[in-house]
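Progress against Task 2.4 (sequence-to-structure conversion) is shown through the following example record, which the project officer requested during the mid-term review.
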Amino acid sequence: MAENCISLADIDHQLSCEGGNMAGIVPEIIFGYHEDVAVWPTEPVPTIDGTTQVVTPVELEAAGALVGNLTMKPGTRAFKFKFTEDAGNFSIVPVGEVDGTHFEYNLNIVKARISQTILGFMNAASQRKMFFIVPDENGEYYLMGNKRRGATFVTGGDGAVTGTTASDRNQASMQFRFRTGKALVYTGLVEELLVLVP
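C-alpha cells generated for the chain above:
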C-alpha cells in the first residue's frame, strides 16, 4: 500500500471570519535578487520515524504553506515596489503532462508613467533571477522563488507604452514567472526584509 504524504480533511465553505473573499493583489510587492537570499523557506514534507520508518503525513492545511522565513545575506535587503492599484494580478496555474504536473506562478503588474527608474528596474530584472513576495487582498502572501529557481522576467506583453490619446495611460507593463512543484502560501517574515542586514 502506498504511503500518503498528505492527510485529507473536510473542507467547509466558510470563506473567512475576517471579511469574506476579496479579489486582486495589494499594489505593493517586495522584491530582490535571488542571489541575495541567505535562507529560503522549505516545502512541507511528511516526517519519517528513523527507527520504524513509519510515515506521518502532513496535515492538509500545513501542506499548503512554506515552512520558515526567507532571510537576506549580510549587506543586503529586499525592496518595495508600489504600482497602479487594480492594475496587477497574480495566479498559480497547474501545468504539465500526467505524472509531470507542476505549478506556474505568474505576476503581472502595471506601473503608471514610464520613468528612468522603471526602465532601470526592467533592465535589472531582464537578465537576473529575482524573488517576489506578493500579498493578496485576503491577507495571504505568495513567494516567487526558491533555493533552486528564481522568478524570471517574461518577454512579450505591452512593455512600456506612451499611449495614443489623452485618455490613455502612459505606463510600463511587466510580467514575471516562477515554476515550482507545489502551490504554497508564504507565512514568514515580510516587512523585516526591507531592513539592511548588518
